[in-house]
Amino acid sequence: MRPRGADQSGFLHELVLHSSPEEMLEFIVPFIRDGVAAEEPTLLLVRPETAAAVLDRVEPSPHLLLLPALGQPGRPAADLRATETLLVGYGLGTAQVRIVNQEPVVPEAQWHEWRRLEAVVNLALRRHNTWAVCVYDRRPLTGEMVEDLYATHHLTGQGDHHRRNDRYQDPVEFISKHQDAPPDPVERETPSAQLVDPSPATARAAVAGFARQTSLPGHEIENLVIAAHEAVSNAILHGRPPVVLRLWVRPAGLTVTVTDTGPGPNDPFVGLLSPEHSNGAGLGLWISHQLVDITHRRHPDGYTIRLATAALPPNLTP
Fold it and tell me: Which ranges of the chain would DSSP assign to H, the alpha helix?
């Protein structure tokens, strides 16, 4: 049963902040038990140690499914697509689906895109009869991060209580206020290369050549090459000259910016929603957002899209 005062169907988005594994389990265990008792599909997307702790407290059930936690801080569009795919598998006319996702620790440098994700899921998943819970460890969060999370969730939870969140904001208004990402510190450094009005083919060749100087795996190089081609093509087709590509080489990765003197896309959801969605835009940018880390920035000199990728540490490599 949904909390009193909440919509009784459709997408419901709840925030849980905790300061210890015990406090987290005080919410997760009752939430799962209630879902299983109601014979609702209940999906638990958590880290292995959390899954083990839950299974010590909850009996196995055909209504309970454990999966790895979602969370690629720099690529929120990939997480959104994975969640949508998961829910589509249950059909749009089925009973309510419950999801608990144990969220990653998001670096401040990647928070801008992450908060856009938390807002846009309220539009992207609204056709699904789903109660989704985002579980965060509050300890690494800044005050601004906490405010963003309250602004993007309908409910807040603690223990076995669920409360309507009066600080929730309309997703369109929220994202419109946070459309432009701050520059990355690397952009203040002298770039390894700068190309003025490159063709998409030249951009591909330059990015591929410099990427081979890093420790990036082959698939990440290919992803960055595709995204750079798309960014330069969009700047030529939709922006204003000159188009300037800059890139910075680091041992473990590569950062690329593409700047033109036009106003840039006016879609606040650029790259996050698929073209089929009523608020979606171009296919190319949507795909690029799933391949590499991307931010957008409008500024007095025009518009800049930043692409970045880095090799994972050995203990995190898939």
Answer: 21-37, 48-55, 76-88, 111-124, 143-151, 171-177, 200-211, 218-238, 283-291
